[in-house]
Amino acid sequence: MSATKVSTTVPTKHPPATAKPGKAHAGRPHAAWALPGVLFFAFFAVVPMGVAFYLSFTTWDGLGDPQPVGLDNWQKLINDDRMVQSLWLTVLLTAASWVFQTVVALLLGVWAAGHQRNRAVLSAIFFVPFLLSSTAIALLFYALLDPNFGIIQKNTLGSSSGAFLAIVFVGGWQFIPFHTLIYQGGARQIPDVLYQAAAIDGAGRYRQFFSITLPQLRHTITTSTVLMVVGSLTYFETVLILTKGGPGTDTAILPYLMYEAGFKSYDFGYASAIASFLVVAATGLSLILVRLTGFGGMRSTREGM
Amino acid sequence: MKTEERPTGPPPTRRRRHWTKRANPVAGLGSVLWLAVVIVPIYAMLSASLTSQDKALTGNPLTPPTSPTLDNYNTVLNSGFGHLLSNTAIVAVAVVAIVLTLSVPLAYVAVRTRNRWSGMAFRLFLLGVAIPAQAVVVPLYLLIAKLDLYDSLLAVILPTAAFAMPVSVLVLVGTLRDVSEELYEAMALDGASPQRMLFQLAIPMAKGGISTVVIYSALQAWNGFLFPLIFTQSDGPRVLTLGLFNYVSQFGVNIPALLASVVLSGIPIFAVYLVARRALVGGLMGVGGK
């Protein structure tokens, strides 16, 4: 972050040299340097994605060779009641998680960006859940929600709304510390002068929050939102350990449905169709988010200052 | 990495006045509430893990254990916990090494080389952030089997590293973008090669981003569950997360032992947190970029 500090002050003193139209590249590295990384990523992520798409047009039980079946899997996907339920559930879970995590993390992050001693101490404690893995956290709440043993002596995970809320809560419990940190970092970088100017203009604390803090955090909100959306589209450990998709199929979100189709029923063709759908949904969503907020455009929040 | 004190910057008095002008009871109450949400489960976990199994079923986990015992921890430690731990450590170190070796030059090219290809590479990774690991497990399973890596640590390491790359590249590009052009030009005047600029200018200036990448990818490796679940099977290459998952069936209703295993799994990262909290927190903050 020390590098960040330097850069935010340097370009204001000199016109940014990067904007020069000249092509006098001062010792530019050869593009081939990027090749190993690109190839590695392509081999283990991009190509498999293509293969998944191909497999979605085949039937394959993991042994022998995949047999082409045309659009069968996709037709099955469209007509599968579980799929419709699962899609709706995934959307609902993503939305609920986003609201829960963003509200808490943004408020805590902005609060923690202050500098009193107690904030530092509390922030250190707030961070502890993030030190456990999703698996460990899912197990912890699996134990704590056990009707015979747990804190709440009720069968929370036995009812569909209880199980759903438990997944939202457990996801939030785990990831809010991380997003709080992101917001804290973002809030720290808001120049103090903005608040001083607002105070001179007579803006109160809440006015300052909505007119300075929130707009200044827009890139942070984008980043955090993309991570949250992609993250909650792929909650898997939590569902597998906490509810196994149950009660019935009431918490079987898309990744869980795919896991069952593939590695429980050995219907890899159908699993691949679900997986392809998941990729399209996740990519589409983040593209929309990135486009809407101009994150890719290398623009700075400091523009015009 | 400044997390609480600010050694440089404006005098603290001015800053402090801005934040504490008047007490904010709503924020205070909110933070206390969240403190309870965080603390109660952790407390219940610790207290239950110290309770013997027969007492745990009758008592409430919120009451402190009357006769604390370490039996549950012994049970877990005698169930191959050390082996799980060392496997996980190997995976984490290997993943960090691969990610750094591949991402740093890549991000450097994306920032410094302005042509269509480097732009495309950058965009590939921007989209890569959105590829869910779940989406590729089926073909990866096929690939891993064909490469004869099934049920080995490499089967976990390689895909985990690949999936840690998009965020790492984005973080590094974000940091390297801030190294000013004048510095490169100054080095170019001295006749420095691109390699020397990378090692003597870009990498030292991007230390913040690099430590973020180290922490992020190490945590990805440490916490990964799906790849070990699908690509390994036997005890040999079993990692911590999968081991925990197996304890559910192994310990059955022995919930105190299960919770003891959860506590033990958190201790290594907790130790790192205690020793290097600033580096860890500051590094993770970097994932959010600017």
Q: Spatial order of the strands in the main sheet of chain A?
A: 1-2
The helix content of chain B, as a percent range, equals over 70%
Shape of chain A: globular
What's the order of the H and E elements of chain A? HHEEHHHHHHHHHHH
Under the CATH scheme, which architecture of the domain at 89-252 in chain A would be assigned? Orthogonal Bundle
Q: Largest sheet of chain B at a glance?
A: none
> Main β-sheet of chain A, in a few words?
2 strands, antiparallel
CATH superfamily of the largest domain in chain B: MetI-like
Quaternary organization: heterodimer
CATH class of the domain at 89-252 in chain A: Mainly Alpha
Structure, explained:
The complex is a heterodimer of chains A (305) and B (290). Chain A is mostly helical and 305 residues long. Chain A has helices spanning 2-13, 35-55, 72-79, 81-112, 117-126, 134-144, 160-188, 192-200, 205-216, 218-233, 237-242, 254-264, 268-293, and strands spanning 58-59, 67-68. Chain A has a domain at 89-252: MetI-like fold. Chain A contains 13 helices and 2 strands; from the N terminus they run H-H-E-E-H-H-H-H-H-H-H-H-H-H-H. A two-stranded antiparallel ribbon of chain A has the order 1-2. The longest helix of chain A is centred in the N-terminal third of the chain and has 32 residues, at 81-112. Chain B is mainly alpha-helical. Chain B has 2 domains: 12-69, no CATH class; 80-288, MetI-like fold (Orthogonal Bundle), CATH 1.10.3720. Chain B contains 15 helices and no strands. In chain B, helix 5 packs antiparallel against helix 6 (116-128), helix 5 runs parallel beside helix 8 and helix 13 (240-251) packs antiparallel against helix 14. The longest helix of chain B has 32 residues, at 81-112. The two termini of chain B are 14 Å apart. In chain B, 51% of the residues are buried.
